[in-house]
Amino acid sequence: MKKKLSIVDIAQSLNVSKTTVSFILNGRAQEKRISPELVERVQKFVEEVGYKPNSLAKSLRTGKSNIIGLMVEDISNPFFASIARLIEDRAYKNGYKIIYCSTDNDTRKTQDLIGMFRDRHVDGYIIAPPEGIEDDVTSLIKDGMPVVMFDRHLPKVDTDFVEIDNLFSTYNATLHLIEQGYKNIAFITFASKQTQMLSRLQGYKDALIAKGLKPVIKEIVFNQDEELIIEPIKAFLEEHKDLDAVFFGTNHVGTCGLKVINSLGIKVPSDLAVISFDDYDVFKLYATPVTAIAQPIVEIADNVITVLLSRLNNSSTHQKPQAIVLKTELRIRNSSKKAE
Amino acid sequence: MKKKLSIVDIAQSLNVSKTTVSFILNGRAQEKRISPELVERVQKFVEEVGYKPNSLAKSLRTGKSNIIGLMVEDISNPFFASIARLIEDRAYKNGYKIIYCSTDNDTRKTQDLIGMFRDRHVDGYIIAPPEGIEDDVTSLIKDGMPVVMFDRHLPKVDTDFVEIDNLFSTYNATLHLIEQGYKNIAFITFASKQTQMLSRLQGYKDALIAKGLKPVIKEIVFNQDEELIIEPIKAFLEEHKDLDAVFFGTNHVGTCGLKVINSLGIKVPSDLAVISFDDYDVFKLYATPVTAIAQPIVEIADNVITVLLSRLNNSSTHQKPQAIVLKTELRIRNSSKKAE
DNA sequence: TTGATTTAGTAAATCGATTTATTTTGTAGG
DNA sequence: CCTACAAAATAAATCGATTTACTAAATCAA
Fold it and tell me: Fewer C-beta within 10 Å: chain A N or C terminus?
């Protein structure tokens, strides 16, 4: 177990001071007028023995950790997993590592996790915020931490966020259903006060009302246990035999919804047309592929990391927070008009 | 922007030495014979002002970071995302944070990432290792780092690992197909020398040979771009019209395979029976649900974290590395016998 | 009373870097 | 020859904890 080399070891081996080594390694040789020969000698040696500065010590001194904290709702959800994947790639390419965690939309858990991240001195935060976390995020921002929110935002917190045009997305998709001749369209979603969920619901309602139809809404209480999501959906569908279409508000609800539909032997779209928010292999490969609203995942990730990196690089300049809203794509998969 | 309190601030406020504060905060008060009154006073004050030790400084001194490095193949793959989720939960509960990354099965990238983790002084490693990474992992172990491998292992590296009984899983599932009357069964998988892939392939071959049938194997070169996976599968299926069943070696191949099957208008299972490794919503919700081999995800995660934590807690004792092999479950979904 | 031991606590070294302040050396100008 | 100034490098302070080694006061035994 060879022990790690420190900057002192390097300095001693070369008979120079560690200050000099440090300056050279940090590219401040010119500025500090260190002779090119010495620079060369040090760099060559460092390369040779494979010395790498201890980043903990570095962080302690500089106050920068080169770590970004990423808080998603649930890393096992394909939407968040994909985003995380893309963010991870771009972060690593820019010399940042990611510490991530799943909030489960649980305020207390999220508070704890913010505490942990803070404690670890992460340089910046990427958060899909749960409800009730306003104060904690505000306090982060007050302390000068860059925070970028995505998927949703906190109206009371003035910071960058990247999200999609939820209201238009569901409005447009609902209109599509109506134009196909569907009239009894239900919206099944998670009970939530989060901005993206409120907008999705609103878009659906707006479309129905604009066309003089009556909204039918079912809100499911989120639960880790999938059975407890499936159960109420089943009850709802059994109770509303008159529906001719159903709109699922998230990929998770959508997947559970399809399971219910299968178990009840409902035929899609002849018995019941289906649209889901989020596109996802399950929807593409379903017996009759399901129309879905696809989020521009790559763009979301790109924007998130770009905004955050720019904050990290000029932490001095106080630019106004950016609100980035991206478009979605309605992927129409079973466009057969409703049989009259 | 209030600045953080340090242990010195605490010590000064209370008129005691920082040594004393440190001892008390680390539960060494008794051992160090510090009077109960003083202990009480310090604890109360610390609580009051909400002081938290700077974990970077702590790590620098103690050499422990309380961070676990998790390297999966691809965090956006549902198998790895679920495992990561479970590991994350259990790690946090035990006071550890996770830094994760996706290796893409790329040796060079993985080497870089190990370097980064090492640099960050992570306390332990959980790795789904790509090929060719033996030396790097061995060197980690030599340096006394706990390393647990999962999903696959490196035969030349003697360390803990958790995986499933791949050979039996595919053997058993293939036998199931044969018993159903299928005779021309192909195995489509990623080209790979990884232990789990070799075993899966072997299990398939063993079963066919045992029954006097001829193996038909198609190995796909992995690629980030899904089109480049779909393409060769399509070519293969078009070329082998005589097949009556196909076995997909991973969830990813399976999903792509179903897309091909859909695009070719092949009916499952009447034209072609399908089995896939890994169970997954896509397979449950496919037009005719697909028989799949379900991995015990919770058990895998539990075992991984348990083994790692025990190594972390008694790093002194040199227990023999454990090889944990778990059972899978064959979920039979369209068990209709082949029509003769 | 004296020396040993225990009790309760602290000063200083340490982890491995960065950064500020300072010293040494060389050279040009008067 | 002496001063001034730049060039080249370094000593020492710092980040915020832990840990080793030490001290002062109190207790105890002989």
Answer: C
**CA atom of A44 to C1′ atom of D30, Å:** 70
Query: For B13 and C15, how far is CA from C1' in angstroms?
Result: 26
Are both A253 and A271 inside the same structural domain? Answer: yes
Residue B104 lies in a domain: yes
**Residue B53 CA distance to nucleotide D20 C1' (Å):** 21
Sequence-ordered list of residues with C-beta below 8 angstroms from that of B267, at least 6 positions apart, any chain: none
- Are residues A149 and A117 located together in one domain of the fold? yes
**Are both B222 and B254 inside the same structural domain?**
yes
Alpha helices in chain A, H assignment, sequence order: 7-14, 18-25, 36-49, 55-62, 78-93, 107-119, 134-142, 166-179, 195-210, 227-239, 251-263, 281-285, 297-313
Domain containing residue B265:
166-295
DSSP secondary structure letter of residue A132:
T
In this complex, which residue's CA is closest to the C1' atom of nucleotide D13? A61
CA-nearest residue of chain B to A67?
B99
- Chain B neighbors of A101, CB-CB under 8 A: 88, 92, 97-98
Q: Is the pLDDT of residue B2 over 80?
A: no
Number of structural domains in chain B: 3
Cβ proximity of B315 and B329 under 8 Å: no
Do A160 and A170 lie in a common domain?
A: no
The pLDDT score that the predictor gives to residue A11 is 94
Residue-wise pLDDT tens digits, B278-315: 999 999 999 889 999 999 999 999 999 999 999 998 76
Q: Is the pTM of this model over 0.90?
A: yes
Burial B86-110 (b: 16+ CB within 10 A, else e): bbbbbbbeeebbbbbbbbbbbbebb
Tell me: do A109 and A18 sit in the same domain: no
Residue B191 located in a structural domain: yes
Report the C-alpha gap between B201 and A280 in whole angstroms.
29
Q: Assess if residue B129 is contained within a domain.
A: yes
Which of B96-100, B157-161, B225-229 is the least confident region? Answer: B96-100
Length of chain B in terms of residues written: 340
Same domain, B47 and B79: no
Residues A225 and A286 in one domain: yes
User: Element (H or E) spanning A124, and its range?
Assistant: strand A124-127
A-chain CB neighbours of B116 within 8 Å are 92, 97
Residues A180 and A285 in one domain: yes
